[in-house]
Specification:
Elements lengths: L12 H10 L11 H5 L1 H5 L6 E4 L7 H7 L3 E6 L2 H10 L4 E5 L7 E5 L4 E5 L7 H4 L2 E7 L10 H10 L1 E10 L17 H8 L1
Parallel strand pairs: 1-2, 1-6, 2-5, 6-7
Antiparallel strand pairs: 3-4, 4-5
């Protein structure tokens, strides 16, 4: 459980963009994640028409799946390539517009209006820009965030959720001395201190 070897590791935005450009996206799952299917009832909690947030969404296929179930999806991703591939992979028409509050940011929205993906740094977002959410599917975001930014990330995420929201978080467990990350190892004790 010693994360000493990872605590100072930093992956830059440029490195993430390069992963997308090079097709080095082993973290992308072509099929929906089995844990989302398994715990869908926990996320939805008997509710329909939820606003669900996908932090660091990439081109996650679960966004379309949940939108098709009647939910409103909002994601954020630094790679414009990933966002455009999401829409083309699913043959979804979309429009693109600048985000007035964030210099250089763009928002890509399906013409049906139920999927909105922001192309910018997650740290540029706030509830005043994207609103609040009933649910979060964090399958690879917390574990991709640089260890030095975890507190900042957790504070942002807690500011984006409604009082009785559901937050599904997937982490990975391994010997952090044998792998430098990402994905980073986040001990359960740290998850509890970050999210309470």
């Amino acid at each position: 459980s010693d994360i000493g070897s990872q605590k100072d590791r930093v992956v830059t935005e440029e490195e993430w963009l390069q992963k997308w450009e090079m097709g080095n996206i082993g973290f992308h799952k072509e099929q929906g994640h089995p844990l989302l299917q398994k715990y869908l009832d926990v996320l939805l909690n008997g509710r329909s028409g939820l606003r669900i947030f996908f932090p660091l969404c990439g081109k996650a296929v679960e966004m379309k799946w949940l939108a098709d179930l009647g939910h409103s999806i909002v994601g954020v991703e630094v790679s414009e390539q990933a966002v455009k591939e999401f829409f083309s992979d699913h043959s979804l028409p979309y429009c693109e517009e600048p985000v007035a509050e964030i210099s250089g940011a763009k928002m890509f929205q399906s013409t049906s209006g139920n999927i909105s993906l922001y192309c910018c740094s997650i740290y540029d977002l706030s509830s005043s820009i994207i609103g609040k959410f009933d649910g979060v599917w964090d399958r690879g975001a917390l574990v991709a965030v640089n260890p030095c930014d975890r507190q900042r990330y957790a504070s942002l995420m807690t500011s984006l959720v409604e009082k009785n929201s559901s937050y599904l978080l997937v982490t990975v467990s391994y010997d952090s001395n044998k792998h430098k990350g990402p994905p980073f190892y986040v001990p359960e004790s740290e998850i509890k201190s970050l999210f309470g």
